[in-house]
Amino acid sequence: MTRPSDPSRLTEAASDPGLEALTSPLLAPFFLPPPLLQAESDWHPHLPFAAWLVPALRPRLIVEAGTRGGLSYAALCEAVAREALDARCLLLAAGPALPAFDRLHAARYAAFSECRPGETPAQAVPEGGIDLLHLDLPADHAAAGHAFDAWRSLLSDRAVVLLHGINRAGADGGARRFWAGLRQPGRCFDFLHGAGLGVLATGPEIPAAIAALCRATDPEAVHALRERLALIGERWVLAGAVQEEAVAEAVREARTLRRQLSETRFRLARAEQALTKAQAKAQGAAEAREAAETEAVSDGTAPDDAADATDPVVAPAPRGRAIRLVSRLIHYPRARGAVRRALRLRDRLLGRTPIDLYAPRRRVLFVSGEPGTPGSIYRVDRYAAAAAALGWESAAVDLADVNPQILAGAAIVVIWRAPWSPHLQGIYEHCALFGARIVYDVDDLVFRPELADAAVIDGIRSQGLSEASVHRFFAMVRHGLREATLVTCSTLELAHHARALQIPAMVLPNGFDAASLAMSRLLVRQREEAGGDGLVRIGYASGSRTHQKDFAVAVGAIARVLAERPQCRLVLFRDPRSGQGVVLPEEFPQLRPVADQIEWRDMVKLPELPRELARFDINLAPLEPENPFVAAKSELKFFEAALVDVVTVASPVGPFRRAIEPGVTGFLPETEEAWYATVLRLVDEPALRRQVARAAYHDALWMFGPERRAELVGSMLDQVVGGAAAARAFELDLRRGGFGPLGRPRVPETEVLFRADTLRESTVTVVIPLYNYAGTIVEALESVRAQTLDALDLVVVDDASTDDSAAIAVEWVTLNADRFNRVLVLRNRGNSGLGFTRNAAFAAAETPFVLPLDADNRLLPGCCARLLSTLQGSTAAFAYPRIQTFGAGDAGKQDYVMGKPDFLAQRLVGGNYIDAMALVGKWAWAAAGGYEHVRFGWEDYDFWCRLLELGFWGEAVPGILAEYRIHGGSMLHTSTQVWENKRSLIADMHRRHPWLAIAEQSDYA
Question: At the N or C end, where does the chain have fewer CB atoms within 10 A?
Fold first, then answer.
């Protein structure tokens, strides 16, 4: 009979007391469970070994590099903290850590540990200083070797190296082969569970316990030790999972209790109102009786004895009937008057200060039926922020937290994705009683119960749901939707379905916010600086396992492309907890031959999604054709990829047809053959990918940005409130045609002459279009360098000058690049004119605000800072300064100050008074379609007119902040003010903008 393996034989063989704690049946103190991070990681089985290793080695410096998430590093730090070692810890992370790790690190380890993302080994530590090094090995053999070699000279004489991933699967088994070539008898030990962990003792002064572990040779004892530590680690993981589930259950129970508490408060509020009404009625009856008795006494008559009897109590109408009656009458003036009088009587009887509940209010509440989900960010948080930007008192709250106190004073309550329930009914009844309007918001076709069929909604099958439960949920959502004043939807298709149910509906699309835009553009710049790795990544960022039939539309074509182009990778996502793919590849046999070209990534939360999308070269958005549920999906995959300059290939359903212009801002193939041809072409033509992605980015800036969202939500709020403002908002919506852009900026082809980027954030870019201004360009550039705004970007675009302008600009920025956060010098491939050159500069800018400066003008030092302080926090599209003229030209204009009047749209009807030197929101530039080429000048005037036609406005900033050069060679003298040219220019402007009435005799600068 085989005797069970005994880990104590390892101690006997190694004869070292330091191993006793590791192999003893009794658990040593360091085997107590550490504060676990609830993160999916294959490092969990190695946590017990780390807890033993640190006190056995007693390192002075611990370094970890190339890992993600923070679990392994937290284990090493915890061992240092428990043993109170005099050690320093350093983390050089390869990617963002979990927020939970950041909190744990700050609370427990910050005194002896620091994190330095992005540093190289040589920058981080001195030679010979590391006692314990933990590396996460790449799967590729050569990359694993490079990763290890970079640290060799930094290891001390007593160093131990932990190499994680030695048992990780890879295309060529590279990590395994690297470890096999590295391991030496008596100097290494390997754990095979998880992804594998190699322990390598590199120096001559290794502590005895670790040396004994590395010398262990008894196979059974070694196997028993591995099993023991793995089981302890698994037990900790299970205990953590149980604890996490207990916390989740506690959160669910707390949410239920909050909801029940809110329902109780609603009942109490209704009871108080009923009591108040009864008291008012009784008091009124008593006053009437007293008046009648007084009148009878004065007439000499006395009441009968029966008159002293108590009046019978009239039973109130059922609560539901009363509420429905109030909800129907509450918006009529006479009904309002009756309610006002009743409430005033109540307040007088109870000694309260009267409050007019029907006075105009500007408080809106956005309620999330599914808090903590990505949809809640799109539909609740971002729309609440839009209402706040418009001056409304706005709040976003969890449905379970809504109670009468939170609803107090709200004029409008917007409820997203909440099924009908007693709690929701209480909210509706409270709003009806106090005159607040209900808006119900939906972003999926979840209010048509007849669609709750696995043949229509594939997620029912792939997520293991029952059709009956989905049908019930849809029916409860429809109930809530029917009772609302208005329904808001993310797509036109959803609005059509709502209107088919005789419910008024308005489209409020999904969109991005300023934070996601800033992160996306920073990732674009980082990608440009880092360069590529030679691979072409085709990504499918599905957010849940509900898209098997959708992916089937494109999978055959993608498999063919992968087979024909070995440099391609298909990027799919998986659940980091279970490890299961969001897309189930086993359902697609086409992928089996190219399985080694699939790159799996862990799903991330919405704020981190741009990091994943920025790794793509091509973004896939396939959808099942002829499916009403799928056809109502929003176009968010398009605009989120556009923000990181990634081209999208999507199915031609309604939302994508409206968002994408085929071949210009994306692609809409209809058949598998078309999918194959489109994706293959994009793989082979990187220039086409860049061109289409840039156009998509310019479209997305306005169409899905926070500024347009504010316009749409303002219109919705006005229309819900009703009255004259609602009629005007509806008319404006019709005339604007959905607040679409006026066109797409025309941007000429350019080449890069100089580029430098610190990869830090900035808010303002000064852009200088340059054409044959070699004599003045340095003055203009010096005025930009002198700006008091610290973080500043600079873009110069040479319009194919025939003099030395470009060379001078490159020489200057080379010497002064350190002054700027980001500096770029471009040259148009052909002469394109001032308007299109400005477009090239705007397109190259990566900040929210852009200031055009002509190459013969100058900015005063405080210009950018003053304009920015005015524009930030404002809904204005641009801010303009006063500008002093200077130079040796027209003597009559030496002391002329431009831009003195405050902004008034009517003033632009008769002529221009705003120079191009103004700080402009890049979103406004994109919405207006950029600058147009206007012969003889006035590109800036045409641009301001285009902004006015979108309903945008500007702000004047007092004080002279810039200087305009008057000289004989300026466009003003050589072109604009030549009389024949000016007459032609005025006629052209009237053609472009028929509402203008420019007087020909005027002389506008």
Answer: N
In the chain, helix, strand, coil percent, each to 5? Answer: 50, 15, 35
Fold of 12-245: Rossmann fold (3.40.50)
Is it the case that residue 411 has pLDDT exceeding 50? yes
What residues does each domain of the chain span? 12-245, 363-507, 536-704, 750-992
pLDDT of residue 1: 37
Tell me phi and psi for residue 918, to 5 degrees: -145, 150
Pairing type for strands 897-898 and 849-852 reads unpaired
Instruction: Note whether 801 and 775 are within 8 A (CB).
Output: no
CA distance 831 to 811: 22
Q: Are 646 and 618 in contact (CB under 8 A)?
A: yes
Extended strands (E) in 452-539: 486-489, 505-507, 536-539
- How far is residue 469's CA from residue 329's CA, in Å, rounded to a whole number? 36
Residue 546 — φ and ψ, nearest 5°?
-130, 15
Q: What is the pLDDT of residues 172-187, one digit of tens each?
A: 667 788 888 888 888 8
Strand 793-798 relative to strand 764-770: parallel, antiparallel, unpaired?
parallel
In 678-721, DSSP assigns E strands to none
pLDDT of residue 889: 52
For the chain, how many helices (H) and strands (E)?
Answer: 38, 28
For residue 329, the model assigns a pLDDT of 45
Torsion of CA 433, 439, 442, 448, to 10 degrees: 60
Cα–Cα distance, 317 to 193 (Å, whole number): 71
Residue pLDDT, tens place only, 46-92: 888 888 899 889 999 999 987 666 888 888 998 998 888 989 999 88
Structure tokens at 509: 């699309």
Helices (DSSP H) in 936-978: which residue ranges? 939-949, 971
Q: Is the pLDDT of residue 306 over 50?
A: no
What are the distances in angstroms from CA 487 to CA 48, 93, 443, 667?
Answer: 55, 46, 11, 31
Superfamily classification of domain 750-992? Spore Coat Polysaccharide Biosynthesis Protein SpsA; Chain A (3.90.550.10)
Q: How far is CA 135 from CA 149, 163, 197, 207, in A?
A: 11, 5, 10, 21
**Paired strand residues for 88:** 61
Q: What is the pLDDT of residues 122-139, one digit of tens each?
A: 666 777 889 999 988 877
- CATH number attached to the domain at 363-507: 3.40.50
User: What region, left, alpha or beta, does residue 520 occupy, with left being phi > 0 and alpha being psi -120 to 50 degrees?
Assistant: alpha
In the block, tokens 């148009």 appear at 828
Buried b (16+ CB within 10 A) or exposed e, 599-626: eebebeeeeebbbbbbbbbbbbbbbbee
What are the tokens at 352?
């309260």
* Element spanning 650, H or E: strand 647-650
Rounded to whole angstroms, the Cα distance separating 429 from 322 reads 10
Report DSSP letters for 111-138, one per residue: TTEEE-TT--HHHHS-TT-EEEEEEE--
State how far the Cα of 116 lies from the Cα of 89, in Å rounded to an integer.
11
Q: Tokens 């970890």, residue? A: 64
Neighbours of 1002 (CB within 10 A): 11
Domain at 536-704, CATH homologous superfamily? Glycogen Phosphorylase B; (3.40.50.2000)
Residues 849 and 763 sit within 8 Å (Cβ to Cβ): yes
Q: Indicate the DSSP class of residue 84.
A: T
Confidence (pTM): 0.70
Tens of pLDDT, residue by residue over 922-977, are 999 999 999 998 876 789 999 999 999 998 999 999 989 999 998 765 554 445 45
pLDDT of residue 279 exceeding 80, the answer is no
Average pLDDT of span 860-878: 94
Question: Same topology for domains 536-704 and 750-992, yes or no?
Answer: no
Rounded to 5 degrees, φ, ψ at 744 are -110, 130
Distance CA 565, CA 685 (A): 13
Q: What pLDDT shows up at residue 734?
A: 81
